[in-house]
Amino acid sequence: SQPAAAPAPAATVSGKATAATPSGAAGRSEAGKKAVTCDGANTKTVAAPLSRPVNHMLLTVTNTGSTACHLYGYPAVRFGEAQSVPPAIEESKPQAVVTLAPGESGYSSVNLSAADGSGGEGRTEKSLTVYFQGATPGRNPSAGATPALPAKGVWIDDSLKVTYWQSAMDDAVIW
User: Which InterPro entries does the entry mention (predicted)?
Assistant: First the structure.
């Protein structure tokens, strides 16, 4: 008789999101509670401009709830009174949904403007709302987040785009 297969290892690293779950535990946290969708009510979102790559901002979402939450797809970001949200960089799509245990963080990079000025007309924006996608693409949970931007605002242009949510900061900022 063959030995029983060991469960798949969980990709749990201190301070990093979990992308894999043990066999049979998909969608459940350590306490056995069903994971929920991350949104503005169960997370803290921080927007921080990056010095490199130039014209980029990092969104960091930390699970402040008591159960795991899923970061589906990519953030729908709205600067100021914009009528639409920027597209995602399709090449940044991870192989699995990013799942955050309580206290863990997920990341997305926002390409604010073209470094060479080719992004069309630009403007300074001083407010940002981050909406989270649900399991069904295009559906947003009820609560968005409004992270603070620098007092001087951020410069954006028509080349604005975002990465999909990533479990590691390095994976978000390479785009």
Answer: DUF4232
147 CB-near residues (< 8 Å, 6+ apart): 45, 46, 47, 59, 128, 130
Predicted confidence (pLDDT) per residue in 14-45, tens digit: 344 444 333 333 444 455 679 999 999 999 99
Yes or no: say if 68 and 35 are a contact pair by the CB < 8 Å rule: yes
Angle at 72 between CA 162 and CA 31, to 5 degrees: 140
DSSP code string of 62-116:
EE-SSS-EEEEEEEEEEETT-SS-PPB-GGG--SS-EEE-TT-EEEEEEE-S-TT
| Pairwise CA distance, residues 81 & 83, whole Å | 6
Tally: H helices and E strands in the chain = 1, 10
And the tokens for 38? Answer: 């991350």
173: helix, strand or coil = helix
Cα of first residue to Cα of last residue in the chain, in angstroms, is 49
